[in-house]
Amino acid sequence: MLPAMAGGTEDAQLMTRYATGDVAAFETLYSRHKGPLYRYFLRQCGDPELAAELFQEVWVRIIKARERYEPRARFTTYMYQIGHNCLVDHYRKSGRSLTDGSGEAPIEQIPDPLAEELDPAFASARWSLVDWEQGPADSAPGPEAANSVAQRAARLWSALEALPPEQREAFLLHEEGEMGLAEIAAVTGANAETVKSRLRYAVKKLRGALGDLAPASSREALS
Amino acid sequence: MSNGNTPRDEAELENFLARQSPLSTAYDAIDPVHPPEVLDAKILAIAKGATAKPVQAGADKPPAPKPAAASAPLPAAKAPPARATAADAEDDDEDDAPPARRPRWLVPAALAASVLVAVGVGISMLDPAPSDTAADPGATNPLGSLFAKRARERREAEKAAAEVAAADSQEAEVELAPLPPPPVFEPEGPQVEDLDTAIAMIRRELVLANQMAAMAEEARSGDQALQPDDMTTRAAAAPVDAMGTAGVIQPRNRRLAKILELYDGGNPDLAAASLEIFLRDFEDDPISQRIVDAQPKPTDVAVE
Fold first, then answer.
1. I want to staple B21 with a disulfide (CB 3.0 to 4.6 A). Which of A47, A145, B7, B15 is the partner?
2. pTM of the complete model
3. CB of B235 within 8 A of CB of B243?
4. How many helices (H) and strands (E) would you count in chain A?
5. pLDDT band at residue B54 under the 50/70/90 scheme
6. Alpha carbon distance A183, A192 (integer Å)
7. What is d(CA B55, CA B51) in angstroms, rounded to the nearest whole number?
């Protein structure tokens, strides 16, 4: 979803230019990252007003720290780290925590329904990645296919909202911030293995939520 | 796997991390929302306004209308390079309200002023009398006065310590010195050098006194019909010692008898001391005269 970027180096150059007073560089930087950052907040907290507030706070902090910015990491990592801290601060002020914001148990203790009900062979027959990818994408986008895509998106959106916050954050940082495990770990303050575990659970749950929308061939295999 | 993850789960995760998962495709199909344009305009205005004034000057407030040249880089806004982290950015947010009214040098300057005031008060409290200050060669310079004062105080302290040490050493010497001999009191009365002779004389005196007393008693009981003139005659004829023994000198005989008891009881020293006291008290008594006369003279000792 993030547009093609020249990389963190260009972002750092834009930030450095803005530190010297080049507002156009900031506008480029902002237009490049505003969508992903806003969606990160919106899909993490689910409240447009709160997302806008946190979004603005992150940019204000970046603007104020522009002259002390030193590109030692990707700008994206720097930006989302501020965003993560703003989110944690918000949860702390509201008496909640990012970990237990959903009221669910920590992720390591979450019983995975898919792991219990599906054995690998059954899951493979039920939901084939190859079939799922090649099904609607290769066919002509007719009304039925478009409806299927919309249904998948809606289903994924609902499943994403149902994820525990830390798993959802890891997923969003990967999708919106285009981050790897190490960068997600740096942003969230967790170690890489924890992040990997969170992503594994998130992928498994989201995959399960989309299983009903698998292509017809896969559904036939299930029956 | 021990945690319930299958190889397929790992493969899915790897695909997801490589952005080759259908989840990513499905996620991209969700409506890509963007921040409101109003929010964009506000943030861009903040960014422009921040470049037109110092960094700490409230960057989160929408800037006032300004000329186009305001967006040009300002040399004064350049700060020394320092690493900005996410934590730094958050710290900036905490003090963004008053930074323009609270310069960074304010706290150090206030601390320095407090220290100076405290030092001044301390100096004024420790400052000696004006005469001492005038006599001090370093009094012209306040700093020199302080050092001179401290040096003088140090010297005085060392001097006092030396005096205390000397006094202590003297006291130690006094304590270690031998005790003076006890005072010797010169005897005031006659000394009894030959106690045995004196005791023998006392014994004879008492025997004689007893005999005289017995005779007087016998005469008093046997001559009830005697005339008073006869009594007066006999009394006048009696020796003086007998009269004294039977009447006024009775305590004298008791003290002599006590001296004899001490001597016979094995306390010759106490007997001698008592005898010397007796000789002083009854200096004119005949027995005292005889005892003193019977004592050896110093010349006799020297001749011997």
1. B15
2. 0.46
3. yes
4. 12, 0
5. low
6. 9
7. 8
Taken as a whole, chain B contains a residue count of 304
Q: Which residue has the higher pLDDT, A166 or B143?
A: A166
Q: Quick check: A93 contacting B, CB < 8 Å? A: no
- The residue among A26, A53, A55, A27 whose CA lies nearest residue A39 is A55
**Mean local confidence (pLDDT), A40-49:** 89
Give the pLDDT score at A111. 33
pLDDT of residue A33: 92
Using the structure block, give the residue that is written with the tokens 């289903």. A155
Q: Residue A173: CB partners within 8 Å, gap ≥ 6?
A: A40, A80, A179, A183, A184, A187, A188
Nearest to A172 by CA among B55, B27, B52, B167: B27
Residue of A nearest to B5 (CA): A115
Q: What is the ipTM of this complex?
A: 0.70
Query: Can you give the pLDDT at residue B251?
Result: 80
Window 123-182 of A, Cβ < 8 Å to B: 123-124, 129, 132-133, 137, 149-150, 152-153, 156-157, 160, 174-175, 178, 180-181
Inspect the interface and report whether the beta carbons of B22 and A133 lie closer than 8 Å: yes
CB contact under 8 A, A85 and B23: no
**CB-based contact B59 A63, cutoff 8 Å:** yes
pLDDT on residue B130: 53
